[in-house]
Amino acid sequence: MAQRLELGMISSAWFDTSVGLEEGIRRAREIGFDSYDIFEDPLDIDDATRRLIKQTCREVGLPIRSVVCVNFGLVDFNPSVERFAMDRARAYIDQGAYFGARNLLLVIGEYYWDGEVFPYEAIWGFAVDRVRRLGDYAAEKGLEIVIELEPFSQALVRDVDELARFIREVGHPAVKANADISHLHLSGASFEDVGKLRGIIGHIHLSDCDGKKHGDLPAGRGVTPIKDYLKAIIDTGYSGTVSIELEYSPDPDRIVEWVEEAYRETSRIMSELGVREEARA
């Protein structure tokens, strides 16, 4: 029998909708999610808000597994920006530790100036060194860092080979990969390519897309072969959380239905693969 996986969602699904922070947590648990990922920036919220998040998740029985950080400054060449970017990343790690999370989901940035001022190798080197140092800090706090593959032309880590290479070069036991299923599809990864991440996957994001551009759609709304990618990930031995990523719903007034649909369809796929019980009615 295949290993069981948790089904979670990222709090950003509720952004720019009428569903507030506390209500979003309660709704997620009512819908049936097993866990929750927090997108809120630690520099934009206060201690009272952090306590509310933690207490509400604890009250409804929804553990926090990941905190999500987009941090392009990690590859900036200016020392002042580097200091800020590193301090901000550490603040996310501290927030994750407070929440009892397992990992910091980190988006590390893009190449710039077409590699003509700073060569691509130098920009890559900035990222490797800084993530390695963040790995030390995360390990001290009991967390891992998971690196996101971004399927865009200037992204540092834009396909499976670059993701695997990056993790190898960082060479830190607390730094792993985030396997984002729609990003795998948009980057042109084959199901066999997923095997290159064997032993280094620390988290999964799941959404659908139209096969051409980033979409964050509920499963079944696009053309991503989600079930096949998820099976390939399971075949690497991964055991952990699958987090649904939904952002910028085309109809914010119906966001609850959007999230319910994503939960239902993803849970169905997971149950067909034998890693989750059937979704609630």
TrEMBL record:
Pfam family of this protein, just one?
A: AP_endonuc_2
Tell whether Nucleotide-binding is among the UniProt keywords: no
Q: Where is the Xylose isomerase-like TIM barrel domain?
A: 25-258
- Carries keyword Transcription? no
Write out the GO MF terms: isomerase activity
Kindly give the Gene3D superfamilies that the UniProt entry links to this protein. Divalent-metal-dependent TIM barrel enzymes
Q: Which UniProt keywords apply?
A: Isomerase
Domain of life assignment: Bacteria
Under PANTHER family, the record lists: HYDROXYPYRUVATE ISOMERASE
Identify this protein by name. Xylose isomerase-like TIM barrel
Species in which this protein is naturally found: Rubrobacter xylanophilus (strain DSM 9941 / JCM 11954 / NBRC 16129 / PRD-1)
